[in-house]
Amino acid sequence: MSSVAVTAQTAGEGAARAAARKRDRKASGSATRRAGWVVYAALGVVLLISVFPLYYTLLLGSSDPVEISRNPVPQWLPDLSLFTQFQTVIESTQINFWKALANSLIIAVVVSAAVVLFSTLAGYSFAKLRFRGRGPLLVFVIATMAVPTQLGVIPMYILMSDLDWIGKLQAVIVPALVTAFGVFWMTQYLSESLPYELIEAARVDGASMIRTFWSIALPAARPAAAMLGLFTFVQQWTNFFWPSIVLNSSNPTLPLVVKSLQSNYFVDYSLVMGGVFLVTLPLLVIFAFVGKQLVAGIMQGAVKG
Amino acid sequence: MAVLTPQRSAPGSGAPERESRRLGFSQRLGRWDVKLSPYLYISPFFILFAVTGLFPLAYTAYVSVHDWSLLGGQGEFVGLQNFSDVLAQPTFWKSLGNTLSIFVLSSVPQVIIAITIAALLDQNLRSATFWRMGVLIPYVVAPVAVSMIFGRLFADQYGLINSMLGVIGMDPIAWHGDRLASHVAIASIVNYRWVGYNALIFLAAMQAVPRELYEAAVIDGAGRVRQFFSITVPQIRATIIFVVITSTIGGLQIFDEVRMFDATGLGGPDRNWMTTVLYLYDVAWGNQHSLGRASAVAWMLFLLIVLIGFVNFLITRQISTSGAAKKSKRKSNTRGNA
């Protein structure tokens, strides 16, 4: 039932685009008028709420530890003392900031690349190739999306300690290399956007299957692959539960650093908050560059279901 | 490109020649290529999933019926002992109550606020991308960082929220001391992170609603609010179901937020905000060191998620289909009047 509705939505999309274009041309009529100031004011409040916690973190991070314990809002503008906190966090031997940054980067990059590659391979297969058992296998993939991952943490932990991977990065990386969502996402995208004619033309030209995948399907999948990569990256970067189980403070990721800031320094709140902001900063910078695509990805994913 | 081999027919489409000619090596290779490649391409997913997804699921059941300690490893078969042990622990029941309470406090406002923000974003906005990116900022901040920041905002003493309450003449609230207050604070952390994300999902669905429906409603004299409830909500029902189900699965597995809400990370002095996943963590890696009992917790949590997900699905479908039925009835009335 829901799949019918989703299809209907996708079909409606074209109509919506056309209507939007028409709406832009003649900005009259009460249903199509430009948004009033009330809408902007309301959205402004939403935006302030989105940004405020981060701003508050900056404030706390750049204030005096003694002052902070007496006054919830010591000052209204962050100042240079923030950098002193950054420096303390970076140089602290208990925190391993650089190692955490490198680890987070390695995990996020490797996992994103693998998820994109494996999902595109499988998605291409499901979307465009004929083989026995295709239907049931695809249904199986989709069904697994509903199973909560945390159900399996204990056997996974046992497996990881049997492999002697506890404390090592592969304990985080290997279980994340494939996702059912990724396969589903690429299947959806490729079945709509890659014409059979292109594949056939390549095959007629004598390209092998893998060559066809590499030079026809992979380039065609680029937009969806970029979205999938971005999402996986954010997910892995902010992931805490599983790394907190299999990694330790000598080989942490950035979220684990936040945890150890809290337990090591929680008396000195200005230092802790400076550190929290520092740890958050890399992803905010990345977001400034790719935020637009991330937004587009969520919007696209929603329509496809 | 490689169009230099006109003689050779395309591999896989060589059915007519099958009887007349013996296959060359490269052709046979080509046929195997066509037959095997699909399986080859999907195999990374299935192999990795079997090891890291399917096997753990089944193995959790196996571990849950054994005496299994974190350090000692597998012990003897104990049947349902672990389950009854867990059920006998008051902390388990308390964690279940906390989970449900935080789940309800987070998911209900989350869906309502998200759909409202989506309706705002669905207007004809200047620099729409800017606003969309703005609401998504919280999503990229790691939940552990968000939780620490909010833990400070909601600090019992010298917290910003309490001092603001003081300004408007209210008594400070014990956000870490009172059970319900702590649930409200934690739910607001969850909501902070997910409202914008869900708003964008709703927005996408709203943009796919045919504008003609709104134009017709305007002609019928429907106001903004009426349009929202009579057109938008029924039209995006599939998306509402999707968001409700995903937020249920996520909401019942809350861990990061509660673990970071204070420095100890074990749900407060009276386990006032210990959720079931945090309890699971504590049973396995905290004070009990029992992987067997933790597996039993995992299974019971799983059953709860399935149960609530199912109930959710039924309720959401009920609400949204009755809305849709009303709408179509109204539409036919309109046509009759015209």
TrEMBL record, chain A:
For the keyword Transport, the answer is yes
According to the record, the segments passing through the membrane are 35-56, 105-126, 138-160, 172-191, 212-234, 269-290
Could you tell me the membrane topology recorded for this protein? Answer: Multi-pass membrane protein
Every ABC transmembrane type-1 domain range: 101-290
What Gene3D superfamilies does the record tag this protein with? Answer: MetI-like (1.10.3720.10)
Alphabetically sorted, this entry's keywords are: Cell membrane, Membrane, Transmembrane, Transmembrane helix, Transport
An annotated GO cellular component of this protein is:
plasma membrane
Give the matching Pfam families. BPD_transp_1 (PF00528)
Write the protein's name.
Cellobiose transport system permease protein
